[in-house]
Amino acid sequence: MQLALSLTSLALFVSLALANPLAPVVYKELDTRQGPLIPDNCTTYSSANAGTVCIHVPYDCTSFYEVQLGETCLSIAAKFNSFSLTQFFKWNPDIGQTCISLRAYVPVCIATPWYIFEPPLIQYPPGALVSAADTPVPIMPQITAFCKTFQLVGEGTTVDQILGQHGIDIQEFVLWNALVQVQNPVVWRDYFVCVEV
């Protein structure tokens, strides 16, 4: 019975298509702009060291750099001194705002024709307060999605110092920065932590 129904449905579809083969099919919500529709700008990259990965970069990226073992977002930005860490993340969203997904032997975008670098700001100075709207990079992993203000941790900065500066307690701080532990609170130098939600 199912086979007969399927054959009947197929016959009906073919007869309708043959009845008016040149009639254009109109879809009201179809994007009719010129060029191919690309749902994902993934570029497949393969190398012996990196394997095969999908990278997302701007279509107009004019310069690429292959990440070397041991490099960080900050070390790459300092090497080229031509873009901010925030811009580096925007060009290369696969690295994540934490920069933890930066992979050795995988190319990253380091230039586009429309970006104008304003030296010397590769990164904010230690202790800087930055709003979430300004997309601070890198942030410590597991920070609340509701963070409004971030602070860049400098060398020697302690959690107690951060708590005192902002009048918050350790319970709030670990709630906003889940990677930090109450018993042994440690923050990462050169990373942003959440100080206000």
TrEMBL record:
Residues 63-110 form the LysM domain. Residues 1-19 form the signal peptide. It comes from Hymenoscyphus fraxineus. The lineage of its organism: Eukaryota, Fungi, Dikarya, Ascomycota, Pezizomycotina. This is LysM domain-containing protein. Keywords: Chitin-binding, Signal, Virulence. GO terms for molecular function: chitin binding.
